[in-house]
């Protein structure tokens, strides 16, 4: 157990990658702040964390949308009051909105920039003094969409994730000089609720799984990822086992970004298989 007694914040941790990450930190003995918008799924995640965590561990819950600008401070203040320290910040909260470079609206673009870029930057700033004191670190959850151009309808999302990678590297220099490592994970396709919602071509779970099976044919390893696989990498980066990793944007996509991300590549791969 590498995180006994440590205070961990995982935004967007009521489902998907965030939930898997919160559970893995709990298994490693950490105190974990869980955040999300849906109260029912938050309460379920809380119970699951308690079930796998230490009896002495503390778990805090913050419900709310980052549309509320006071939420950043609430998350920070709750972690400090409940745990007395912040050792790891995982900036995971996210949502993809559909729209290409020709169709994205200004409102949609602004929402994506706020949630996927501004929130990680300014929550990191707010937590910095505590992370410096604990010699802690930050893990940003980015995407392969931020490192490779695509013709898919995720323009604003991709721009925000590319900027998040740049923040990771810039902060790796500045925060790193103060003893706070900053890294990012860039997952490929993951079978999560957010992944399903981002697929505008599907209407139900069966169609979504069929779509993922189609996508997997364009991946060298012939698979898409799971939230649990992403969580293992996130927790590794947050641990002392990764003490020399700083400013890294680690791709975890089975080699998908080597092959191309656009629809034509995926369709061609499907035809060849």
UniProtKB/TrEMBL annotation:
The keyword Oxidoreductase applies. Gene3D superfamilies: NAD(P)-binding Rossmann-like Domain. One of its GO terms (molecular function) is oxidoreductase activity. InterPro entries: NAD(P)-bd_dom_sf, Sc_DH/Rdtase_CS, SDR_fam. It holds the Pfam family adh_short_C2. Keywords: Oxidoreductase. This is Uncharacterized protein.
């Amino acid at each position: 157990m590498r995180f006994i007694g440590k205070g961990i914040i995982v935004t967007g941790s009521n489902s998907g990658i965030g939930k898997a990450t919160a559970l893995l930190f709990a298994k490693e003995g950490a105190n974990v702040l869980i955040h999300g918008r849906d109260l029912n799924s938050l309460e379920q995640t809380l119970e699951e964390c308690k079930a796998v965590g230490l009896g002495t561990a503390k778990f805090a819950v913050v419900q709310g949308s980052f549309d509320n600008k006071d939420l950043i401070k609430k998350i920070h203040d709750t972690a400090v009051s409940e745990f007395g320290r912040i050792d790891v910040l995982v900036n995971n909260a996210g949502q993809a909105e559909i729209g290409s470079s020709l169709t994205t609206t200004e409102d949609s673009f602004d929402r994506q920039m706020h949630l996927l870029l501004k929130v990680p930057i300014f929550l990191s700033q707010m937590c910095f003094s505590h992370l410096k004191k604990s010699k802690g670190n930050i893990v940003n959850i980015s995407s392969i969409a931020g490192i490779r151009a695509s013709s898919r309808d995720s323009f604003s999302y991709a721009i925000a994730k590319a900027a998040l990678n740049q923040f990771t590297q810039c902060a790796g220099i500045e925060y790193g000089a103060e003893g706070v490592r900053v890294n990012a994970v860039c997952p490929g396709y993951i079978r999560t609720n957010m992944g399903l919602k981002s697929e505008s071509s599907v209407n139900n779970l069966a169609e979504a799984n069929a779509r993922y099976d189609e996508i997997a044919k364009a991946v060298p390893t012939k698979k898409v990822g799971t939230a649990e696989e992403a969580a293992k990498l996130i927790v590794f980066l947050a641990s002392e086992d990764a003490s020399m990793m700083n400013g890294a944007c680690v791709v975890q996509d089975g080699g998908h970004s080597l092959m191309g991300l656009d629809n034509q590549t995926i369709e061609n791969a499907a035809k060849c298989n």
